[in-house]
Design goal:
It contains no helices and 84 strands. By secondary structure, it is mainly β.
Length: about 700
């Protein structure tokens, strides 16, 4: 008890035992061979003094060890906390300091030794080694330094208050845990982590570049500095505690795993730059609090943003405008949905989408630039909001369009890609050009609007399995739906009609390829054209419209050209007298330049009839000369069978140039029985029948 003062050195190999009292106004040195022992007794304090310890010291007391009026303890040797003292600054005078250039060790107790946080605490300035072998060492006074920080298996090194700044050369190691659990730790320059360093509460700041093979953890608290995660490090986000990225930047070169169902809040232009792997294995959310610039997630080339688990997936929430996502790497949806809501989402050249689940854009603006690859089995979905940009969706995956607007864009769906318009909300092409080269299917019954000169160019196969309405609301110049040469638009899946509405002038339907109407009907009430390369195919499986055979309707003028194809299905064989109104119209311009019709039995033939309101395919009796015989006297006998008509004139010739009438039947009832006794007089005799309808 009492006071120790003066300027002096305790040398030799003996022990200086401090069980109570105050070292005041002194400069006391404990030599390298000497022993320092702080054993149980009374509280003790360093009062404006400097104690420099070069020897081997042990602290076995559980009393308070106070530092006042700028008191300093310099450790150049080995000081072991074998019990659990409390180092405390009562607030008198300037802030004291504990400077460690040797080894500060916590051992011999599973309890908690603490540098208390009150009144700013006692600073720990470390350039040596802090070695926690057992129990907990809690550092609440902040400080400055670098050095080595070790936590052995089962031990905890904890930063609990005030501000600690760690400079270049700092090392965190050991099989235990180093934790920020209050106050602020600023990391400057290079920090090596071969153990585990985590943030649970408080602030992680500075501009740290972290290397090594250990683990950085984020269980809670605020990151407002730069955290550069090296390629061999692991970053783990765990627990549902609140996590705030407050203008901070996480640059991940390693493997990041988010394994809780929590939320990362962000503000003031916070950023995640991912060049490694960011894998979320639970249902998690990114949230913008609305303060300052929007936060940004940059998934750079070579980076992977993966939804690797969870039920619902990861959501970039749209509140306050949401996060900005820039992807030039891989978006990998292995579970749930990677949901991009509101905000700005940018798919940059060279980016890709993979996984058996989906990446979904909900609200905001999705911009596609350059070539993005949709991997096998992958799905990129536009559910609402806008898609814009000039880009190509390549690969063999699926672009699913369940709602929203493609606006001011030039979007190309590659030859190997799938396009799926499934049920959801109405969708529109707004001043954009969509070029489809792949295999597409339309299963929605919603309205598909085109405005401000929007264009859809089909260069691949587009199958309508349902019956949407292609519609022009009248805004801007007339849009167009173009089916290119060698492309196919196929109608199947229902007996109802796919409708190109004529409202407001309609969407111009230009066909240069194949319109393959396999089931139901296509109704074109809008302006239309057919090129000479166009083909229109119908399927006949019965005599009833819609249910039995497919059709095309024109609310106005049908501009016909190209080839008419017809095929039979379901084993159906038409009979004489059957008729099929394949094309119905208010007016007709042009005709099919060629036909491709299925074969009929010898007694039947097709006839294409262009009527005032319909193109009808008729089945008639064939015009056939049969039962030809020649009598012993040389007379020729035969029957002619054909469809009934106004008249039938049988003519004969010996040279196929000059013909004379041999018999006239008026009206013609379908059969002529004819005998030509003069046939024996000629070496060649030819016959023909001219039918007058």
């Amino acid at each position: 008890s009492g006071a120790l003062t003066g300027t002096g050195t305790l040398a030799g190999t003996g022990t200086f035992e401090w069980t109570g009292g105050t070292i005041v106004g002194a400069s006391l040195t404990v030599g390298a061979a000497a022993q320092l022992a702080l054993n149980n007794g009374a509280d003790r304090s360093v009062d404006g003094a400097t104690v420099s310890h070069y020897g081997t010291g042990v602290v076995r007391c559980t009393n308070t060890w106070s530092f006042v009026y700028g008191g300093v303890f310099n450790n150049f040797g080995l000081l072991t906390f074998a019990s659990d003292p409390l180092l405390y600054f009562p607030g008198y005078g300037s802030q004291p300091a504990f400077n460690n250039a040797g080894t500060l060790r916590k051992n011999g107790s599973s309890g908690r030794s603490a540098f208390h946080t009150d009144n700013g605490g006692t600073r720990l300035n470390n350039t040596g080694t802090v070695d926690v072998q057992q129990g907990t060492l809690a550092l609440g006074g902040g400080g400055l330094g670098s050095g080595t920080w070790n936590a052995s298996a089962g031990a905890l090194l904890e930063f609990t208050g005030n501000t600690l700044t760690l400079t270049n050369g700092t090392v965190f190691q050991g099989a235990g845990l180093s934790r920020i659990n209050g106050g602020r730790v600023n990391f400057e320059q290079g920090v090596s982590v071969t153990g585990t360093l985590e943030l649970t509460n408080g602030w992680w700041g500075g501009g740290g570049v972290f290397t090594g093979t250990g683990t950085l953890g984020w269980q809670g608290g605020t990151i407002d500095g730069l955290v550069n995660v090296g390629p061999a490090l692991t970053l783990v986000l765990s627990t549902v505690n609140g996590k705030l990225l407050d203008g901070g930047v996480i640059t991940n070169h390693g493997a990041a795993t988010w394994n809780d169902g929590g939320q990362v809040n962000a503000r003031y232009g916070a950023r995640v730059d991912n060049l490694g792997t960011w894998n979320t294995t639970a249902d998690a959310t990114f949230y913008f609090e609305g303060y300052g610039a929007a936060p940004v997630f940059n998934n750079y080339a070579g980076g992977t943003l993966r939804q690797g688990g969870g039920t619902n997936g990861t959501r970039f929430l749209g509140d306050n405008g949401g996060w900005v996502l820039n992807n030039a790497g891989l978006l990998d949806a292995q579970a749930g949905v990677l949901s991009l809501e509101q905000g700005s989402k940018n798919l940059l050249h060279g980016g890709s989408v993979a996984g058996a689940y989906r990446v979904r854009s909900l609200g905001g603006t999705l911009t596609v630039s350059g070539t993005n690859t949709l991997g096998a089995g992958a799905t990129l979905e536009l559910a609402s909001g806008a898609l814009t940009g000039t880009g190509t969706l390549a690969g063999s995956g699926t672009f699913e369009w369940t709602g929203g607007t493609i606006v001011g864009a030039s979007l190309t769906v590659g030859a190997a890609a799938q396009l799926a318009l499934n049920n959801g909300a109405d969708r529109s092409v707004d001043g954009a050009t969509v070029n489809h080269y792949g295999t597409g299917v339309v299963r929605c019954t919603n309205t598909w609007s085109f405005v401000y000169g929007g264009v859809f160019n089909n260069f691949g196969l587009l199958t309508f399995e349902s019956d949407p309405v292609v519609y022009f609301p009248g805004y801007g110049s007339q849009p167009a739906f173009n089916n290119a040469a060698n492309a196919t638009i196929r109608k199947t899946g229902s007996t109802n009609a796919l409708v190109f509405s004529g409202a407001s002038g309609g969407v111009l339907f230009n066909n240069s390829g194949l319109l393959d109407v396999r089931q139901g009907a296509v109704r074109v009430d809008s302006p239309n054209s057919m090129a000479s390369t166009a083909s229109t195919r119908f399927v006949i499986g019965g005599t009833q419209p819609a249910a039995g055979y497919s059709q095309e309707f024109f609310g106005g003028t049908a501009n016909l050209n190209g080839t008419l194809h017809v095929s039979l299905t379901n084993g159906f064989l038409p009979n004489i007298g059957d008729s099929f109104a394949l094309v119905q119209y208010a007016g007709q311009n042009g005709s099919f330049s060629a036909t491709s019709l299925p074969a009929l039995s010898r007694d039947k033939q097709w006839r294409v009839n262009y009527g005032a309101t319909a193109l009808t395919l008729l089945v008639e009796q064939s015009r056939v000369i049969s039962s030809f015989t020649k009598s012993a006297g040389g007379a020729a006998q035969f029957d002619f069978n054909g469809p009934a008509a106004a008249s039938a004139v049988l003519e004969g010739s010996i040279n196929l140039t000059n013909w004379i009438a041999l018999q006239t039947n008026s009206p013609f009832t379908g059969t002529i029985h004819f005998t030509d006794p003069l046939a024996a007089s000629f070496s060649n005799r030819f016959y023909r029948v001219i039918i007058q309808e």
